[in-house]
Amino acid sequence: MAKWLFWSLALVGTTTVSATVGATVALLVPLSQQMFQPQAWSLHDLWRNAFVYRLSRPINILVMGLDRVPDAEEDSPTRMNGRSDTMLLVRIDPKDYSVKMLSIPRDTRVDTPQLSIKKINQANVDGGPALAANIVRGVLNDVEIDRYVRVTTDAFRELVDLVGGVEVFVPQKMQYVDETQRLKIDLEQGWQVLNGEQAEQFARFRNDRKGDIGRVQRQQVLLKALRERLSSPTILPRLPGIVRVMQRYVDTNISLEEMLALANFGLKLDRADIKMVMLPGRFSGPKEYAASYWIMDKAGRDRIMHDYFGINSKDIASDAKPSDNSIRIAIQNASGQPALSDRVAEYLKNLGFRNIYLVKDWPQEERRTQIIVQQGDIKAAENLKSALGLGNIEAASIGDLESDLTLRVGKDWPDSVANY
User: In a designed cystine with 88, which of 63, 131, 341, 350 is the match (CB 3.0 to 4.6 A)?
Assistant: First the structure.
């Protein structure tokens, strides 16, 4: 029951935090192409009928979490006309029972000769989900986009409050005022349970050197935290309230039957079946453009579209083994042992890894060593884990931005290696 509950809520509940993983019981109501409509189905009926439907092929869903539209009335369609603060392409594949999520930074630069759009987050404003899907398709090697989901920021805030908050580690003190979104951010460093307003603050903070990319990383952290919270059976009594929230704030063209099939698919998913990655790229330089952009790395894009979405590219060799010399590994000490990073770096060099650098210690001690797949290269992470003989692979772009892999060294690092 716990797994069903999480997967039944996660698609909409995490849209505004840069992630979504399947359709939801909260979404299992008759849909029009525009908004949710009132319905008479009971949750018992929805649960019973979910078993009838199955996914017959992989499906790609464009998910957008939207900025607030100033002065838009709560029930007005114009409230769905905001910029996409979050944009995800989610692939749900029944062939290998996997969910793969690509986060597209809102400041990603796009070239649209016949339009004035330069940042991808403007697409929904100018042409709604149809234009957004067309632009994403063009940016991502003509990937097929089957459906879309749009959710306003208010949905996430209310959902977090309804589930009793989410527990996350805030890595630094966060203070910032976002006048355009009427958001005052004020969070202390450390572990804490965030309410809906605080979770939005955590997700939207961008007053540091990482800017929009830091948002993407924190949104992926929130996804994991929300997943843990929704896995609790104590959430079941709150389900009717969650349904009402989703009805007010969600717009999608996914049919009822498709949602039932997605909910059924979610029953068989485990945590290891989910992979998250961010569109590779770099920040634009001050002399390149008047505005700040995320400049996509086309080679990295091609590899992710091949590995995650099954789109072939003549420049990608699917069976190529990553070179130990070419993989850029950031070492981050989270063990509580001073200067351990230097010894770990020396150990890796003796194993044949050459492209290594150290980053600032992680402020929170971690029990287990993590191999964070920053650029989506799962093969490289598996290669490193095999060489080390330890490490949990974290398929999410929450490591150092310049790395291919971030090795976050935990308290389980062997003493024999620590004294190397």
Answer: 63
**What do you get for the CA distance between the two ends of the chain, in Å?**
47
Q: Pseudo-torsion of CA 404, 410, 412, 417, nearest 10°?
A: 70
pLDDT of residue 154: 81
The beta strand positions in 287-328, using DSSP E, are: 294-296
Q: What is the DSSP letter of 313?
A: -
Confidence of residue 157 (pLDDT cuts 50, 70, 90): confident
Cα-to-chain-centroid distance, residue 25: 21
Average of per-residue pLDDT values in the chain: 81
CA 56, CA 142: separation in Å to the nearest integer? 22
Domain boundary among 274, 309, 344: 309
Q: What is the band of 329 on the pLDDT scale with cuts at 50, 70, 90?
A: very high
Tokens describing residue 39 = 């319905």
Residue environment code for 241-254, b if the CB has 16+ CB neighbours within 10 A, otherwise e: ebbebbbebbbbbb
Most confident of 5-19, 25-39, 173-187: 173-187
What local confidence, expressed as pLDDT, does residue 107 receive?
Answer: 93
| Residue 94 within a domain | yes
Which residues touch 103 (CB under 8 Å, ≥6 apart)? Answer: 18, 19, 86, 87, 88, 216, 219, 220, 276, 277, 278, 279, 397
Give the burial class of 186: count Cβ atoms within 10 A of its Cβ; 0-12 exposed, 13-18 middle, 19 or more buried: exposed
- The whole-number average pLDDT for the span 7-34 is 35
Tokens linked to 122: 């403007």
Span 12-36, average pLDDT: 33
Structural domain total, the chain: 2
**81 occurs within a structural domain:** yes
Residue 139: which H helix or E strand, with range?
helix 123-139
Domain extent, residue 412, equals: 329-418
Mean pLDDT, to the nearest integer, of 263-291? Answer: 85
The identity of residue 32, as a single letter, is: S
